[in-house]
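Sample entry (964 residues):
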Amino acid sequence: MTSHRTPLSALERGAPFESRHIGPDAADQAKMLAQVGYGSLDELTQAAVPEVIRSTELLRLPEARSEADVLAELRSLASRNQVLQSMIGLGYYGTFTPPVILRNVMESPAWYTAYTPYQPEISQGRLEALLNFQTVIADLTGLPTSGASLLDESTAAAEAMALSRRVGKVKEGVFLVDADCLPQTVAVLRTRAEPTGVEIVVADLSGGIPEEAAERGVFGVLLQYPGASGAVRDQRAVIERAHELGAVVTVAADLLALTLLTSPGDLGADIAVGSSQRFGVPMGFGGPHAGYMAVREKFARSLPGRLVGVSKDADGDQAYRLALQTREQHIRREKATSNICTAQVLLAVMAGMYAAYHGPDGLAAIARRTHRYAALLAAGLRAGGVETLHGAFFDTVTARVPGRADEVVALARQDGVNLRRVDADHVGMACDETTGREHLAAVWKAFGIDAGAVDVDELDAATGDALPDELLRTDDYLTHPVFHEHRSETAMLRYLRRLSDRDYALDRGMIPLGSCTMKLNATTEMEPVTWPEFGGLHPFAPAEQAEGYLTLIHELEDRLAEVTGYDKVSLQPNAGSQGELAGLLAVRAYHRANGDAQRNVCLIPSSAHGTNAASAVMAGMKVVVVKTSDNGDVDVDDLHAKIAKHGDELAVLMVTYPSTHGVFEEHITDICAAVHDAGGQVYVDGANLNALLGLAKPGRFGADVSHLNLHKTFCIPHGGGGPGVGPIGVRAHLAPYLPNHPLQPAAGPETGIGPVSGAPWGSAGILPISWAYVRLMGGEGLRKATQVAVLSANYIAKRLEPHYPVLYAGPNGLVAHECIIDVRQLTKQTGVSIDDVAKRLIDYGFHAPTMSFPVAGTLMTEPTESEDLAELDRFCETMIAIRAEIDKVGSGEWSAEDNPLANAPHTAAMLGREWEHAYSREEAVFPGSVHAADKYWPPVRRIDGAYGDRNLVCSCPPVAEYDE
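Predicted structure, serialized as tokens:
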């Protein structure tokens, strides 16, 4: 018998999850620490993190649990949700996600771990998928230019309001909203309008534009098509009258209805907005879903958000890229047209693929089926003596039941169907792709009709459609071959694989983007997202049906408050930009409640991300820029001067910590104190929170409010450029001003600023990811992850320092979680540009770090804690090899015009041609330690961005262009 005995308790625990999440093991950490010059992680922490902000207490979080235990806990939470057949409607509908799309897009790391396509040569699959989405939106709305998605329908309507004011002829006046618009959209519009001085007027426009509104002036009009009540109205006369008044007209339209109804463009609309959720994307208790916006051609260059365009590469071959990037916030800052710096790419891809899989005929068939169920539902109600409000509708029926609405809704709920209580006298019912005959029977029964006496087939034969003849669609749509070639599962499966093979995502290798924190999105964290108990819940379902969800939400709020040192957290903002806006609106409301309405100046360091300035303007604030000193810190002298100059006008300082330059600034507490002494508030941008968890708490070292990027620090994947979640944490005095929601009182305080998202808890469908991450890691695991992230960044900085200058460093020559590699002097000496380096990294099998932000001509590099030492070394050795290549250009061995950097990236197609370069084929495509068997081949050569902007094409090009 062996004398060695391992206790059962240790065997039961197994390997802690942190050892799966954190790439370098103990031995590798020791090697890295030796390179950096420290003996332990704690010793490095003491040297890197200023003592004045360092936390001494451990995080008060539940002890870390195993992956199996956490999944079991999530199963228990999911079981406490009650998923009924939803007929609530209001922009959220049951849908059937084709399994080939569910498995090979939503659940595929090749799609969900990719980053925003800022390196388009290695994002061609994603960009093609987004171009498909844009084509779907443009075709169905009848407007030629669609963006690559917005955050949701309600915020898309708010963006349309801002666009209307900016581009329209009427610069004053009101924004006129039809009373039949979605209530959550109206609420978001009010939140967004008030700080910028826009007046919202809600009126019944079924009889035209009221004369009193016309006399005041109208710069924009919003119509819902079909309306929230279900009504389908011919809006042409209203639109024509609005145009006579000089207004820009937006139609919020249901995409499925548009397969049967005349398009907004043909009705005369200038802008169309809406949601693509019912195109195969689960409701997920409110999100994430891809909102959309399409515009007339004359507004294309003012479109907010991202736009995929067609360009060409160095060989003249067709290639895709993000178009018109000069509109982005990091360039325009406070002059930006919007604070939206992201999209809902993963969900837009799903919606576009849903359309490609079904094609125009399949989509129309789903729409006709949905409409028939609604028509039969209404006919059965009328036959049973129940009054319905509208004779023309698509999928939603509103019934009048004086004083009985609560009773009807409760009876339907008993039979497994959720209806919408409009008011005490009216009930709304929406049919969708998942509606069945049994659901009609349950609804009829709830209204007191004997469902057994209704023969559905006889009713079907006797009931006509309820769509007006004058609004039936007659034009063709989705005619491009992509919507006809992938109808079989085999074809769709291969199409998805072909596109994903053209992309570079975390499943291939490291994406060392500074500030973007591309780290492990563990499968255990991802798995619950597609469980029906989480995915199938309507955001306006009764709270008692979402007990498990609400428990998860409140626990995540509390745990995020603990790790950040704040008193309260709101999870509603569905992107970091929306978190910024919500936080600044809370500050604004606080000042106004204190009688300090004059406080409207927002101080922002010159190095800040551009969304900060754009968000401040949207919150009704005036941006004042504070200088950045030579070492990358906030210029404290200039800060004090700006504080003194603006006195009692100071509202808030927005500062990123650690700084955008990747440094722990030592003066952060003094900076916070100076702002507080002047009566202002401090907003700490949480983009770099991955350097703080377990080491320091913004809410304890002087900040009043922060947004947190759950798609960065808390492991929600970037999804190729979305989804994201940007919740805000606040200290107690700002808690009364957190976002709330008119349809879910539990979502925020009664005194709140209003909703910043269409759904009460924003993108609730992906919150299980962050909940699971915190639960798996525990307090000690989060702290260690942060320490290893800081170690990894310093390891790269030390290894590359002999070859490239590292631009900024803090105390003891250390960086935080990222380092800035400076290429500017090499560019001056050799002509090799930062673009050349970024594209050459592709040949070595890497995604480039963040280019030219916050400093032009540099690479901001963040390795995160999830990359192991082998991958870190592969990156360092690649950068060292590229430096040697730059030296060859500098020495004249390679010419400035013909070298592997200038011609990068190199495609497989180049190898089949006559080789006329001064360097070999092997040097081009197999540099360094790149092996042929593992080679990532970019599908296109370097893309000509300027050509794409000059020749703007933003939907699927004609087939003839493919043939060419």
